[in-house]
Amino acid sequence: MDWIGAILESIREMECPCCGARLQSCAVRGITAEPDALVVRLACGVCGENSLAVVRREGRGAPGRAPISRDDVLDAHDFFKQWHGPINEAITPRAA
């Protein structure tokens, strides 16, 4: 499956956090691609609200890592809703 197909399949049943409309007809824009996931911006086709989604790439999961869950996506949404800094500071991995 191509990456856009994977995104559309993953978001088919998701709802807009603002108006509750199904996101199956939303606008999708890539933000970043990681080895095992894609981070995308979704724009609701009804109200225009923007959301972030993390879509796992098929067959690319890291061994020993759990798949990204809906709760993970909701946690990320809550985090970015309150974030007031540059986005690269929030998503850049920090040295241990």
Q: What would you say this structure looks like, in words?
A:
There is one protein chain. The protein has helices spanning 3-11, 70-82, 87-91, and strands at residues 27-33, 37-43, 50-56. With 96 residues, it is α+β, with helices and mostly antiparallel strands. It has one domain. A hairpin with a 6-residue loop joins β2 (37-43) and β3. The protein is globular and about 40 Å long. The model has no long low-confidence stretch (mean pLDDT 76).
Features:
96 residues, alpha+beta, 3-stranded antiparallel β-sheet, 3 helices, 3 strands, globular
Give the SSE map.
Elements: H1 3-11, E1 27-33, E2 37-43, E3 50-56, H2 70-82, H3 87-91
Antiparallel strand pairs: 1-2, 2-3
Determine the fraction of residues in helical runs and give it as a percent range: 25-40%
Question: Whole-number average pLDDT?
Answer: 76
C-alpha-based Rg, rounded: 14 Å
The strand order across the widest sheet is 1-2-3
Q: How many domains make up the coordinates?
A: 1
CA distance, first residue to last residue: 35 Å
**Count of alpha/pi helices:** 3
The succession of helices and strands, N to C, reads HEEEHH
Structural class: alpha+beta
Describe the sheet with the most strands.
3 strands, antiparallel
Per DSSP, what share of the residues sits in E-state strands of 2 or more residues? Answer: 15-25%
Low-confidence stretches: none
Write down the overall geometry.
globular
Tell me the number of strands: 3
